[in-house]
Write a structure and sequence with these properties.
The chain is mainly alpha-helical. It is built from four helices and two strands, in the order H-H-E-H-E-H. It has helices at residues 2-5, 7-31, 45-54, 84-119, and strands spanning 41-42, 66-67. The protein has a two-stranded antiparallel ribbon. Helix 2 runs antiparallel to helix 3 (45-54) and helix 2 (7-31) packs antiparallel against helix 4 (84-119).
């Protein structure tokens, strides 16, 4: 998508891919809230975006979830550390970020359309 729309749109697209991956990971955390020994997972946005911006690694369509260790903090007796309130907060935050990114991408597309119309 970045070819016609430019580098900003490509960055927004990558950010939205990361948000979609985070949504899947968070849904997995919620689904495993009662699984003994399950450890909460999350996406490391900073590392993924820095890797993308530096060109060090080709962007993965589904970023690898980074396991966040918490050594008993908040863990239940069975070793599971999923906090449903925190996971629901992540989902709500993710929706807000995705909506904002989508709006920014729509504005980029509108600018290209406007430039095309002016060129006719």
């Amino acid at each position: 998508m970045g070819g016609l729309l430019g580098p900003t749109a490509a960055l927004i697209e990558r950010y939205m891919d990361l948000l979609a991956a985070r949504q899947r990971v968070t849904a997995g955390n919620i689904a495993n809230a009662d699984t003994p020994g399950y450890r909460t997972r999350d996406i490391d946005f900073r590392a993924e975006l820095e890797s993308y911006l530096s060109g060090a690694a080709a962007p993965q369509p589904y970023p690898i979830a980074v396991v966040r260790e918490s050594f008993g903090e908040g863990a239940k007796n069975d070793g599971n550390n999923v906090d449903l309130d925190q996971e629901m907060q992540k989902l709500a935050e993710n929706v807000m970020r995705f909506t904002t990114a989508s709006t920014l991408l729509q504005k980029e597309i509108q600018e290209v359309r406007s430039a095309i119309r002016e060129g006719k």
